[in-house]
Design brief:
By secondary structure, the protein is of the alpha+beta class. It folds into 2 domains: 93 residues, 2-Layer Sandwich (Alpha-Beta Plaits), CATH 3.30.70; 65 residues, no CATH class. 44% of the residues lie in helices and 15% in strands. A 4-stranded antiparallel beta sheet has the order 2-3-1-4, covered by helices on one side.
């Protein structure tokens, strides 16, 4: 089994970078082995890639369900634990209870969403990362893994598509 090397292709603009990503996919590089970094935000659709999978929405939904349950407990559970009889009124009034349940649902959903985004972005990240200073100057970097014996084929293909430089790199501690 041959070892995979990481290669960096620097593109001056988004169109050649999108063509380069498409060419890499045609040449058999999986989407998981391709990383695109740039100084400006680029959506996956701009580069012809599938939308990345994230668990943030599931975490947010779980937080909302937990908040709803906590709000129901606060509204209906605590008055029965600590009953304070008030003449002619319900122990758990409905309109203020709906406000409490809504607020707890939103609070827990927001907290779970924040936690999900925090964890999904791998922050803080202490492992070595791929980066090159040219990215800050407006270039678009495409990192990909390819077999060591086929490097020349990938370098030639991306050079013909407009890559300014295509070279092997190693991840460094930032």
């Amino acid at each position: 089994m041959s070892e995979n090397n990481t290669i960096l292709a620097l593109f001056p603009d988004i169109n050649p970078a999108a063509d380069g990503v498409e060419k890499l996919q045609e040449m058999g590089v999986s989407d998981n082995d391709i990383t695109v970094i740039s100084g400006v935000p680029l959506t996956p659709a701009m580069l012809g890639r599938s939308h990345p999978h994230t668990n943030v929405s599931l975490l947010s939904l779980g937080g909302a369900v937990a908040g709803f349950c906590f709000g129901v407990f606060l509204n209906y559970g605590t008055p029965y634990l600590y009953t304070v009889p008030v003449g002619g009124q319900y122990i758990t009034p409905i309109p203020p209870g709906m406000i409490l349940i809504f607020e707890m649902t939103m609070l827990f959903a927001l907290l779970a969403t924040f936690l999900g985004v925090f964890l999904d972005s791998y922050f803080p990240n202490y492992r070595p990362l791929e980066y090159t200073p040219e990215i800050s100057d407006g270039k678009i970097g495409v990192f990909f893994k390819c077999p060591a014996g086929e490097q020349k084929k990938f370098i030639d293909a991306l050079s013909t598509l407009g890559a300014e430089s295509v070279q092997p790199v190693e991840a460094q501690q930032l």
